[in-house]
What does this fold into?
Amino acid sequence: MWRTPLQPIKAWALQTHRSHRFRHLPLASTEHQVFRQSQRGFFASKWQKRLGHLLEGRRRPPAPDVPDKEQLTNDFGIKPCKPVLGSKRTGVLAYKIGCMSLWDEWGVKHMVTVCQLDRLHVVQSMTLQKNGYEALQLGLGYRSIHRLSRPELGTYMKAGVGPKHHKCEFRVSSDCLLPPGLELSVRHFVPGQWVFVSGWSKGRGYHGVMKRWGFSGGGSDFHGHKKSHRSAGSLGQRGIGKVWVGKKMAGHKGPDPRCVNAKVFRIESTRNLIFLKGALPGYKGSVVKISDARGKTALKNNHIRLPYPTFVPVPGVEYPVTIQEPPPQRDPFLYPEQPLYQPND
It folds into this structure.
């Protein structure tokens, strides 16, 4: 019922129905305001408790405090060696944790991928006299003993390490062989070093030739044809009545083996984390192989002194836990003093 301008406003009307016609009017009493606020606070705290109970299993513990320095021991008595022509260090296995952004001293943003060397041990050492080749078998992570065979358990017991989730062999030279049971850390690499990262790419499902192989397609002015701008085109020749093996056609894209170049931006030895610039193949939690760069990329590491056969600590010496790639000496945000063109040009 529409009220007249002279009709008094009843308190129960404001308490039960606050329509747009009564928004400009004050509440009936202060007691009602207090009641509504207490009621609102009760329901808010009620749902907060419910949400807190539901999210209790998803909450992760806070990150541990990372010290600035640490002291390491050399339990296996490994001695450092000088590299010679043909020296080849071992690679490592790591779990892909995820991606994040980091900033250097100049304020430049770097997109990095975090990998963790979780309980990485040397399981076996292959020698030329016993096995016919020189390599190291590394084990990563942990796996239940109920899912392992007896020969595998015997191998782990002989090396003195726990059961591993993933194993892999890396070819090494004779001067870079390591004893079984040794745990490798991220100090095996040096920040600023270029490495090769191998893994399996993500599965993308069924795709056409343009998405899968990068075909250019028929174009917008595809003369004489309709509805075939993204087709594969001719699949063979006139004289040979077959499709050759390996022909690039539409199909399932990924997972495929991939190897990318990456640069070590930062290492953290407490949690065995290595921060690599750029994106790496695989899902979160997948296993990747990280090894020293070879070929043309290895020439970029000539100014870096890599530890051979691996990092060997000196007892009693404190080493920094977090080591980052040194920033450039020149501010990258300043324009060069040299002009882009000469006045006589």
